[in-house]
Amino acid sequence: MTRDPIFAPLKFRHLEVKNRLFRSSVSGRIDNYDGSGTQARINWEARFARGGVGAIISAHAPVDVRGRILPNYAFIDADDKIPFWREVGRAVHYHDCRFILQLSHSGRQQDIGGVENQMRTPLSSTNRPEGFHGFPARAMTRAEIDDVVARFAAGARRARSAGLDGVELHACNGYLITQFLSSAINDRQDEYGGPLENRARLLLDIIRAIRREVGSDFHLQVKISAEDHNNALNPLAPPGNTLEDSIRVCRWVEAAGADAIHVSSGSMFPHPRNPPGGFPLDVATHTYDTVLDSGSHTLRNYFFFRSPLLRPITRWLWGRTQGTVIEGINLPSAQAIKRAVGIPVICTGGFQDARLIRRALDEGLCDAVSIARPLIATPDLPKVYASGRDLPERPCTFCNRCLINVLENPLGCYEVSRFDGDYDRMIREVMSFFSELPEVGPARVSAPDPSDGRSERA
């Protein structure tokens, strides 16, 4: 194993991960409506730690209820959430796995804003609605921008106080920070709009605020869409940020104090290139109705998903910019960014075959990969690699039934062919994390004083 690059430790400035496999940010609606966490969430995260990944990046954790993407995700918006996240970290650390909390804010991209937001227009860089779903938006005031910056910094402090190993800023896939970064979305005329330096100001303000709050020795990484591909579904729409734009942003992010870059793609979620693979319209017809009242285009989309006449058009539009590449779709972008920065680069995008992962690491295309769907299908995938196999016995098909189901149903593998057509067995597996109890031991690290959360000032 010492010669296998997959199992070589990865050293950041203030964090070491035992291998190059990260569980990417993914999780279903398994917490309480008020943003408090559940045992099911702990079970879910412990499942992947037990399976052998080096680090887990949490599901998006809202720093404010106005920034929730979906209900039933655990928040990091107040100090009363710290004990829950401490228990999550404890369960993960038991398996010598690191836990990185993803700090998020939806901006206008609210699939379901929740009852708290029904009478409030989602905040954004712009007043223009989102292009695919038609989610409404209101351009933020300077006071609201300052407030959001402070909330991200407070979320990082709480993560440190919970004894977690770091935080990741969700600055990709169409959420709030992307709405400021993207030239296709941000139409502001103030210091947060216009040239790239201004559009990147919110992200850099957040990084600097976090460093002031938690010091320079707490791990901080940034997940960014290397290319917006904002015209993926509408050829007449502006394409948005290019790879060259993102390389400049990544250099600024490094200078501001980030410890790593996590490379993704797309100016919305879902996007034809994120996650790459199938678009199960049969599932969408059963789950997309959940978001019908969230946007002005959702009813239109619903008809396209349901209509036998319109489905071929939908499939063509969705596959038009994706191409045939699924595994490693973002590797070219990750390689270009890695050449431009001096901090480690993590790449996401459909990884499953160990041969491709080894090649990416050996050739220096990235320093680690993050995986979601293949780990949902095979939670002990790292142990499969360690045994000498390059693929699990029943690989993930990248059908995306797991992610389309998540609007209404528990997250899990819904590809019944992987269960020999046994639907009941598939459902038992999907539901298993609600009842399994993780092994836990003493916390790997002692939690800092919650009243402070800073061991060193930047």
Q: Rough shape?
A: globular
Broad structural category: alpha/beta
Count of discrete alpha- or pi-helical segments spanning 4 or more residues? 16
Average pLDDT across residues? Answer: 93
What pattern of helices and strands is seen along the backbone?
EEEHEHEEEHEHHHEHEHHHHEHEHHHH
Calculate the terminal CA-CA distance, rounded to whole Å: 38 Å
Q: Which stretches are low in confidence, meaning pLDDT under 50 for 5 or more residues running?
A: 443-458
In terms of DSSP E residues, the strand content is 5-15%
- Describe the biggest sheet? 8 strands, parallel, barrel
Alpha-carbon Rg, integer: 20 Å
> How many DSSP E strands?
12
Helix content: 25-40%
- Order of strands side by side in the largest beta sheet? 3-4-5-8-9-10-11-12
